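User: Here's a structure from my thesis project, written as structure tokens. My advisor, Dr. K., wants to see whether a designed sequence matches the one we expressed. Can you design one independently, without my sequence as a hint?
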């Protein structure tokens, strides 16, 4: 049988988790799907699927073979594209995923790419869960983490610093924390995904302080917490890319600036393939042009570029906090 077609059928069965579903998707009979998979198993000498009456799952050999098949099929697509005049231009469906709160930062980049490449159609999926890019057919993902495990090709884009922010009204009413331990007596707004940030780790001059905070509001949507902070509900821990506009406008102020919270990195990731399609390449290039090469925090310098009274206030309060601690 046609080995290439067999690989396509195998991949479809794996993605649809069923022979009948794959048959419907490819508009062939279930018997034909089974025949292709059986022929592949005979050729490679290994069982690719565990089949029961209720489910179809990949074996260990099947998982390894799926990854290699995806690479091979992508190579075939790239080979076709290399000799096609039309395929020289970025085109087709571009599936992109990113954390919910990074959507606002990502949208201008996507708009730029789409305006420059009108044949690209974007499917943007915002979620805080870790997406299996191969299983869900994602082309490019933005991930924010201290580091990645190497499962995908990763391009560093930026660093983003965490800090504690409060509204001027709240700080006047409740007082400004001078040391990390003071947060235990404050009203705190806590992010919940992928896990609740109920313990914060501060570092200064080699000294580490762990503080458990009491939450008056929890959410998986960082912007909701920032909105509550703007209204004086409590103190929010937030990354620099969420806080810049509020700090610049004086709606929020940073506290405990003489202590450091963990720093995160922003990555563009895509499945490990030998060749990268034009649509993926143009998005990666646009992301790097917008955010950088991963060596700096492009948002934090803007947070510190306050002028006049606002800048003096931030420095004065930071100095007072350091003196009390």
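Assistant: Designed independently from the structure alone:
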């Amino acid at each position: 049988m046609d080995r290439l077609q067999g690989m396509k059928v195998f991949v479809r069965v794996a993605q649809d988790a069923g022979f009948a579903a794959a048959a419907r998707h490819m508009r062939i009979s279930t018997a034909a799907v089974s025949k292709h998979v059986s022929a592949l198993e005979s050729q490679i000498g290994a069982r690719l699927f565990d089949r029961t009456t209720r489910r179809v799952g990949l074996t260990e050999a099947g998982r390894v073979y799926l990854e290699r098949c995806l690479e091979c099929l992508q190579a075939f697509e790239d080979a076709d594209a290399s000799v096609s005049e039309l395929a020289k231009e970025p085109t087709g469906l571009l599936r992109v995923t990113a954390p919910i709160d990074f959507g606002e930062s990502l949208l201008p980049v996507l708009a730029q790419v789409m305006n420059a490449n009108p044949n690209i159609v974007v499917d943007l999926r915002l979620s805080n869960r870790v997406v299996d890019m191969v299983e869900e057919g994602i082309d490019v993902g933005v991930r924010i983490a201290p580091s990645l495990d190497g499962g995908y090709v990763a391009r560093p884009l930026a660093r983003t610093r965490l800090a504690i922010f409060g509204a001027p009204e709240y700080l006047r009413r409740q007082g400004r924390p001078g040391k990390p331990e003071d947060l235990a007596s404050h009203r705190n707004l806590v992010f919940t995904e992928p896990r609740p940030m109920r313990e914060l780790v501060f570092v200064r001059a080699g000294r580490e302080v762990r503080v458990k905070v009491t939450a008056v509001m929890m959410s998986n949507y960082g912007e909701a917490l920032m909105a509550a902070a703007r209204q004086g509900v409590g103190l929010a821990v937030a990354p620099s890319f969420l806080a810049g506009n509020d700090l610049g406008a004086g709606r929020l102020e940073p506290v405990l600036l003489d202590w450091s919270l963990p720093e995160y990195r922003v990555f563009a990731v895509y499945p490990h393939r030998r060749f990268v399609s034009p649509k993926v390449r143009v998005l990666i290039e646009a992301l790097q042009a917008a955010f950088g090469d991963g060596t700096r925090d492009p948002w934090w310098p803007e947070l510190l570029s306050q002028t006049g009274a606002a800048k003096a206030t931030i420095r004065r309060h930071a100095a007072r906090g350091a003196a009390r601690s």
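When you compare it with your expressed construct, this may help: The chain has two domains: 3-82, 89-325.
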